[in-house]
């Protein structure tokens, strides 16, 4: 928890401030009855000089993929009778490389939403001084830092809020082997597995939850890191402390490493397809299709392990040609004493030695109905998170 203080920008006899009003909410939506009791009180004080000082609550909100979330931002203007039609509200996403992506802009009653945010971002309109926006059907790419800027003619001020996602980090390397991916290939590899490159904060959180991996991988900011929970000589010396080891920022074209990917809650379900016979890769694909589904991706299996609590002591094909299986409740005959997703490598696709994990999407009718609702209609009840602590990912 922290407090952020910002002085108003003052021009002549008026002062103008923007403040972020947030609390760390693990919610899929913000119904009015819940939100009323959870937002923190913001005190606007006046000192001897007449300047306004604003105290803000922590700038972080949390949801998961497919959820809805409010990015809170409020502003106070002196004098208070300023024409609302002159107020411009602009939301921008800020990347680690200090690049800016336009999200939303409103001037009076005129509004515009940009790019992939179209049809998903709306003003909350909770009353005077409210510049908050609602993001519906949150995607993995929505994760990150957002800037709220409010402008009145020559006066403006900004505030920031971080949108975090509940999810899981997993290491990834392709069939070709370890340390074969430059940055752009790592980025593509994660996307192909229903994930994105993880951020440093996501990897650090996974390490705190037990992730231990002795191979360096790309992160979304272009750095190369790896988490060590149990120091050992083959992973940077046994006498060094546990932590996230950092190689720094590397050449994105020339240097090759593995990848650390991040994914969140599924808009569907992963399951092990019960069959009397083992199948090769081609037969596995056809079997899932006949069952009105597709072969699951690696990120989907990790999400199912994390959020569905999928526990199956049977090895199965995944879309990338790897063989894996998820263990929530460890037992000796299922690969060791720690929960995690076991990885048996990339066998010959002709082998008939395994089953298959399939993925079935949530029905289109339900998804379509949810995405076409208004911001108020789409807000749903808060649900508790059925997740398990992140733990060691093992290779057997």
Automatic annotation (TrEMBL):
Please note every region of biased composition (Basic and acidic residues).
368-380
GO process terms (BP): cell adhesion; central nervous system development; glial cell differentiation; positive regulation of neuroblast proliferation; skeletal system development
Task: State a single Pfam family of this protein.
Answer: V-set
Q: Which family does it belong to?
A: Belongs to the HAPLN family.
Compartments where found:
Secreted, Extracellular space, Extracellular matrix
In terms of superkingdom, the source organism counts as Eukaryota
Segment Disordered: which positions? 368-396
Q: Which UniProt keywords apply?
A: Disulfide bond, Extracellular matrix, Glycoprotein, Hyaluronic acid, Immunoglobulin domain, Repeat, Secreted, Signal
Q: Which PANTHER family match?
A: AGGRECAN/VERSICAN PROTEOGLYCAN, HYALURONAN AND PROTEOGLYCAN LINK PROTEIN 4
Annotated signal sequence is: 1-31
Statement: the UniProt record of this protein carries the keyword Glycoprotein: yes
Name the cystine pairs.
214-235, 313-334
What cellular component GO annotations does this protein have? extracellular space; perineuronal net; synapse
Chief place where the protein resides = secreted
Domain Ig-like residues, every copy: 51-164
- Protein name (Swiss-Prot/TrEMBL): Hyaluronan and proteoglycan link protein 4
Ranges for domain Link come to 168-263, 268-360
What is this protein's function?
Essential for the proper localization of brevican (BCAN), mainly as a perineuronal nets (PNNs)-type deposition in the brainstem and cerebellum thereby playing a key role in the formation and structural organization of PNNs. Contributes to the formation and transmission of inhibitory GABAergic synapses between Purkinje cells and deep cerebellar nuclei neurons.
**GO MF, any single term:** hyaluronic acid binding
């Amino acid at each position: 928890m922290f407090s952020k203080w910002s002085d108003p920008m003052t021009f002549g006899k008026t002062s103008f401030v923007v403040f972020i009003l947030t609390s760390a909410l693990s919610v899929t939506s913000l119904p009015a009855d819940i939100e009323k009791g959870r937002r923190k009180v913001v005190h606007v004080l006046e000192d001897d000089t007449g300047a306004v000082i604003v105290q803000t609550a922590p700038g972080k909100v949390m949801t998961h993929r497919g959820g809805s979330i409010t990015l809170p931002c409020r502003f106070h203007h002196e004098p208070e009778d300023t024409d609302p039609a002159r107020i411009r509200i602009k939301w921008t996403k800020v990347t680690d490389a200090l690049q800016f992506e336009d999200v939303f802009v409103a001037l009076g009653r005129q509004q515009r939403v940009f790019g992939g945010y179209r049809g998903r971002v709306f003003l909350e309109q909770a009353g005077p001084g409210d510049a908050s926006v609602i993001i519906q059907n949150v995607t993995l790419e929505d994760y990150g830092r957002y800037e709220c800027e409010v402008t009145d003619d020559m006066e403006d001020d900004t505030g920031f809020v971080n949108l975090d996602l509940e999810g899981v980090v997993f290491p990834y390397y392709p069939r070709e082997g370890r340390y074969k991916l430059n940055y752009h290939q790592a980025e593509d590899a994660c996307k192909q597995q229903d994930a994105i490159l993880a951020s440093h904060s996501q990897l650090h959180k996974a390490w705190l939850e037990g992730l231990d991996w002795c191979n360096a991988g790309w992160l979304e900011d272009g750095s190369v890191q790896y988490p060590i929970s149990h120091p050992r000589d083959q992973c940077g010396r046994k006498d060094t402390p546990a932590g996230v080891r950092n190689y720094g920022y590397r050449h994105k074209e020339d240097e090759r490493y593995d990848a650390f990917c991040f994914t969140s809650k599924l808009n569907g379900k992963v399951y092990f397809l019960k069959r009397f016979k083992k199948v090769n890769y081609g037969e596995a694909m056809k079997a899932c299709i006949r069952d009105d589904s597709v072969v699951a991706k690696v990120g989907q299996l990790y999400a199912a392990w994390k959020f569905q609590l999928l526990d199956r002591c049977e090895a199965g094909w995944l879309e990338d040609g790897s063989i894996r299986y998820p263990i929530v409740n460890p037992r000796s005959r299922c690969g060791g004493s720690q929960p995690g997703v076991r990885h048996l490598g990339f066998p010959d696709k002709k082998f008939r030695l395994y089953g298959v994990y399939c993925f079935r999407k949530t029905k289109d009718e339900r998804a379509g109905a949810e995405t076409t609702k208004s911001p108020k209609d789409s807000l749903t009840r808060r649900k508790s998170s059925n997740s398990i602590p992140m733990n060691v990912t093992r290779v057997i």
